[in-house]
Amino acid sequence: MTRSTFETTYNSDPIAMRIPNGQQEVVFHPPLLKKDTKLVVLVNRGTASAAEIVSGAIQDHDRGIILGETTYGKGLVQQLQRLGQGGQQIKFTIGKYYTPSGRCIQSKAYTAKKGELGTDEVKVKDQDRKEFFTDSGRKVRDGGGIEPDIAKKDPQVGLKFHGFLKNTQNQNHHHHDTL
Questions:
Q1: Per the count of CB atoms within 10 A, which of 83, 138, 142, 178 is most buried?
Q2: Residue 3 and residue 18 in contact, taking contact as beta carbons nearer than 8 Å
Q3: What is the helix (H) or strand (E) element at residue 42, kind and residue range?
């Protein structure tokens, strides 16, 4: 028997239920954070791939603020395939990453080279980026990484914020629900 775990959107004790085929048990647990808890996610141009998807999901659902620089825009799922006995390989794109609102975070497009083998890598043009909306109706765009809600290009912002949180936590260690 396999077991799957899901988070519920309300506070409760774990609930277990068996799928009709009897082979799988599903367990629902209460969320770790209250639904009204807001998050601050620090991002920069080096933030990529899964970290961008998590940031985008938090932004799409208005669960927190994205602070920093526009992320890298790594939105492709790729796989390598060996060619023959040599060390040559070819990279296939087998999927794309999307946020819950439907945004693809990929910031680069690949076009065929004119008259040559291979592709050229170009930044997605602004006019080709589509608009999407967060749960509360804020506009967000695809095709260029995750754009922060608050743009801050200070390389020390992460350290400063960490210091702020540490000081706040020390002052409120008995009141951690207020953080």
A1: 142
A2: no
A3: strand 39-43
**C-alpha to C-alpha distance for 134 and 58, rounded to whole angstroms:** 10
Residue 66 CB: number of other CB atoms within 10 A?
Answer: 24
Q: Mind listing the pLDDT tens digit of every residue in the chain (179 residues)?
A: 555 554 545 455 565 556 666 666 666 666 767 778 889 999 999 999 889 999 999 999 999 999 999 999 998 888 999 998 888 898 888 998 899 999 999 998 887 777 777 777 888 899 999 999 999 999 999 999 999 999 988 766 666 666 666 665 565 444 444 43
Distances (CA, A) of 40 to 22, 23, 121, 122, 162: 42, 40, 32, 31, 11
CA 25/CA 37 separation, integer angstroms: 30
d(CA 146, CA 129): 12
Residue for token digits 């953080």? 179
Tokens of 164: 């702020």
Length of the chain as a residue count: 179
